[in-house]
Amino acid sequence: xxxxxxxxxxxxxxxxxxxxxxxxxxxxxxxxxxxxxxxxxxxxxxxxxxxxxxxxxxxxxxxxxxxxxxxxxxxxxxxxxxxxxxxxxxxxxxxxxxxxxxxxxxxxxxxxxxxxxxxxxxxxxxxxxxxxxxxxxxxxxxxxxxxxxxxxxxxxxxxxxxxxxxxxxxxxxxxxxxxxxxxxxxxxxxxxxxxxxxxxxxxxxxxxxxxxxxxxxxxxxxxxxxxxxxxxxxxxxxxxxxxxxxxxxxxxxxxxxxxxxxxxxxxxxxxxxxxxxxxxxxxxxxxxxxxxxxxxxxxxxxxxxxxxxxxxxxxxxxxxxxxxxxxxxxxxxxxxxxxxxxxxxxxxxxxxxxxxxxxxxxxxxxxxxxxxxx
Length: 374
Description:
- The structure is a single chain.
- The model has no long low-confidence stretch (mean pLDDT 96).
- Helix 4 (79-86) packs parallel to helix 6 (111-128), helix 6 packs parallel to helix 7 and helix 8 runs parallel beside helix 9.
- The chain has two domains: 7-267, TIM Barrel (Alpha-Beta Barrel); 284-372, Recoverin, domain 1 (Orthogonal Bundle).
- The strands form two sheets. An eight-stranded parallel β-barrel has the order 1-2-3-4-5-6-7-8, surrounded by six helices. Strands 9-10 form a two-stranded parallel ribbon.
- The chain contains 15 helices and ten strands.
- The protein is of the alpha/beta class.
- 41% of the residues are buried.
């Protein structure tokens, strides 16, 4: 059961900024929001208005900025939080209830408290907002019978969507499919959003699995930014849908690299060089077999065409280089080498690379050897 339009809720400005040590300025928040708008993301969870005066004012600014996406304020399950959020002019609210025993015990509550207070809280939310989402915090560790009772109550409350949160990232793609299918059977008319975390490295895969099981929406962050091991990465979900499922999402993927690198700088969280989709080395090739094949057809070793994500593929040269890449490099400069010359350069390059424990750029290789071949 695949949704006709896999919907994304970006929560970089809320769950992403909750990563330890990350603080976005208002200008950075607006910059992130503007780039998400360029990608075409339809909904942003923009913050927690009850967190304090500064957060309230920044959420309010973004909500009134004129962006072309739904703005959602995150709230605890209290009338006070919802009342504060309503003053920001947010389009929607997400009201979060703990639903696992471990989460409830941590705040001195129990299941009876949830069911006793839900109606009053959600009635107030529905009166205050035109769109209400209800979070089932730690749903992946909740008692399934209680989760059914909770979801059924959400469906009957007039709320529009339920968020099924894998709060500590315990799910895998198979258990995600089972959980979302279970919830879908419980609440056939309610929109389902899945909120994965990456503690076991499966958040993106779980997000795709949730869509395939019938979830209408997935919430995620740019670069997977978030607490502990982070969230599902927005850019990975989009390309996962596009490439693995061959589904045309409608999102403007050429802006994903710009967005990712902007958030990298704003968060002061350097990306891994080989991070999927936006890592700086994912379209860089060295080995002889790979470069020779790519020169014939880049699809031989590239799933994503560099131009699709606003990038350029490149070669580096070193221990694993082959003759084809050396020949290609010098012919680009109008220098035709004989086979003996290519072999000599390659042998010297491999030795230098091994000694220095690194590869070299085109410019560096030309500087090393061009005087010897002219």
